[in-house]
Amino acid sequence: MDVAPLDPVRERAILDATLELLSEMGYDRMSVDQIAKRARASKATIYRRWAGKPELVVDVICNRFDMDTPRPRDTGSLRGDLAELVRELCGTAERKHTLIMGLSSTLVSNQELARALRAHMPSRDLSGVEALLERAGGRGEPARSADTARLAAVAEALVWHRLIFVGPPLDDAFVAEAADDVLLPLVRAWAEAPSGRS
Amino acid sequence: MDVAPLDPVRERAILDATLELLSEMGYDRMSVDQIAKRARASKATIYRRWAGKPELVVDVICNRFDMDTPRPRDTGSLRGDLAELVRELCGTAERKHTLIMGLSSTLVSNQELARALRAHMPSRDLSGVEALLERAGGRGEPARSADTARLAAVAEALVWHRLIFVGPPLDDAFVAEAADDVLLPLVRAWAEAPSGRS
């Protein structure tokens, strides 16, 4: 029998196989059978850990590449930390661009994969972004940790928009613009009018 | 001989052919020869109007589908107009999602197409967004027409991010959130500190 489903080596082999097959044949043509064969695992092992193909692919997208865990370092100022956040998201986006774009048309036509990704979004690990806002609050800068999710969403939106419509490189000028012109004014506005509604 | 290159019927036939071939075979495999044959036009006609394949495709992406010309109507308030802007961008994004996503991986690997799209971005028709900011200024709301380009970029970024990572539908709740929590505070912040730098 296979080893326990959470054995990290086995889990990694299964996620690697999923990514390889995804790149080779696309989401629709790939089956759990093929993933099991490629990873030298049993289907039972896979199903003990993941509900099915959509959940496996969401795991590959979101966790396998640290997409979910931006951890901007403490630069000593909110402005500097926001620039670090943008820089980290740029790195992730540049690494995962092809994978996400390849899946994106699948997301539109495949409702089960879209649902699995949607279900995952609220549970993303944004503790690094929350810590950024808490550090700023601790320094007396106007910033509220309650704004973690929307800060992460806007920052990620800017990075992906730039990558898709303007293309790489995501350079220092872009990072500065995103931090100074968008994220910093927003964090301040949210702190001043918590609901965001006027 | 062919009719003059700017004859709208002929131009439309060429753009239609480009879009069809793009969907059928992808950017890399498609040639200007094939576009000419499909559109029953000569290559000379095509080259009188467009510098080459990249420029043709950029025209298809940006102009053929009104991507560039959001024209939010006057709702009587900045908040309402911003919601209209988001709603229009949602419509465009939902219509063009498959096309853009299909091209996106090409953009990464194909530098000539990326350059053509980049060259086009600054010349996009954003007069509808500018009019929105001017109307707000005219009503005495804090808003500056100088912020047209960055307002359009942030609004578009929010819409595409949502579509790619969360998926359709882009509903009223999303429109309200984008307008109230992001665009309205940003337009105000920019009007108060024009440079955006702190």
From TrEMBL, chains A, B:
It comes from the Bacteria. InterPro entries: DNA-bd_HTH_TetR-type_CS, Homeodomain-like_sf, HTH-type_TetR-like_transc_reg, HTH_TetR, Tet_transcr_reg_TetR-rel_C_sf, TetR_C. One of its GO terms (molecular function) is transcription cis-regulatory region binding. Residues 8-68 form the HTH tetR-type domain. Gene3D superfamilies: Homeodomain-like, Tetracycline Repressor, domain 2. Keywords: DNA-binding, Transcription, Transcription regulation. This is TetR/AcrR family transcriptional regulator. It comes from Nonomuraea rhodomycinica.
